[in-house]
Design goal:
The protein has 308 residues and is α/β, with parallel strands linked by helices. It has 8 helices and 10 strands. The protein folds into 2 domains: 250 residues, Rossmann fold; 33 residues, no CATH class. The longest helix is centred in the N-terminal third of the chain and has 30 residues.
């Protein structure tokens, strides 16, 4: 088994980053194709933004609310329903900006063997989300690496940026100035030290930026189904840790993961963010539907930790 330690890895060299980018680039065409397929499938189950606002596209009829002007009444609809008065709501058309960060650190290359690597799911979900958000009228960027765009070729644009060596090191975004009311989507395994994640969310929250944490886990990381004499090897450093009998160590590993998850939940709630956990042995479609349904709501409705 391979596992990541919290000790700081040595600073990446340009050669190492170029090698990582080349490896990812080889898989990007297939990932982009899968992202398009998933986005097309999910979009069939989504109906616009699902919230009222100053647009031109009709969304729904609803009863006239207290204090609303009678100029908004749809008299034809109201005449067919006796004494009830109805208003025509239109869909919100003020584009928001979503900034996607995909953790491309070495720990994301982990796979327990039967499943795809975590980076594969992270990239496919990130690209599919970008496509779905653009279809919904939003603007999307790869955080700190591209400008926001509403292009229908958003998957190609972001895939092209992902194929280059990383502009930013680390498993979390560096400090980037985002516009107020923007939304940062951070996709990774979230095994960074809790204080680093708290610092990031605190900075975003104080800047008026909304945030979502999408945690990608391999099922073996959650279940720790190993036995026999085992040595854990860091994916990002040369560190090793002999744990002896893995079966005897398993409960400790699960407890550490549960404690880390509980800490993440608390941090997310404290900073008005929300945490979504996705495992690589699960289908991606429910995760996309979960996230897009949440993005369609008003950001001030309150967030909570969810699975999908």
């Amino acid at each position: 088994m391979r596992a990541r330690f919290f000790s700081p890895p040595p600073k990446d060299t340009l050669h190492a980053r170029a090698s990582e980018a080349a490896s990812l680039s080889a898989s990007l065409p297939l990932m982009a194709m899968e992202a398009r397929r998933l986005a097309a499938s999910v979009s069939l189950g989504l109906h616009g933004r699902g919230r009222a606002g100053p647009g031109e596209s009709f969304w729904q009829y609803r009863a006239l609310g207290a204090g609303e002007t009678h100029a908004r009444i749809d008299w034809r609809k109201s005449a067919r329903h006796g004494d009830a008065l109805f208003v025509r709501d239109h869909e919100w058309e003020a584009a928001r900006s979503f900034h996607v960060f995909i953790d491309r650190s070495a720990s994301m290359n982990y796979s327990s063997g039967k499943q795809a690597q975590k980076i594969d799911h992270a990239v496919i979900i990130g690209l599919a989300l970008a496509d779905l958000l653009v279809r919904s009228g939003e603007r999307v960027a790869l955080l700190g690496e591209t400008s926001t765009s509403a292009s229908r070729q958003i998957i190609d644009r972001l895939a092209e940026a992902l194929s280059h060596p990383r502009m930013m090191d680390g498993d979390l975004p560096s400090t980037v100035t985002l516009p107020r009311n923007a939304h940062a989507i951070v996709i990774g395994d979230m095994i960074a030290a809790p204080e680093k994640i708290q610092s990031l969310l605190s900075t975003l929250n104080q800047s008026g930026v909304h945030s979502t944490l999408l945690r990608i886990l391999d099922p073996a990381e959650a279940a720790f189904p190993f036995s026999g004499e085992t040595e854990l090897v860091s994916t990002e450093t040369s560190q090793t840790f002999d744990i002896g009998d893995a079966a005897a160590f398993a409960n400790h590993a699960r407890e550490r993961l549960a404690a880390h998850e509980n800490m993440l939940n608390q941090i997310a709630k404290r900073h008005q963010s929300h945490l979504v956990t996705h495992r690589t042995d699960e289908p991606i479609t429910p995760c996309l539907l979960n996230l897009m349904t949440r993005f369609a709501r008003r950001d001030d409705e309150g967030m909570s930790a969810v699975y999908g």
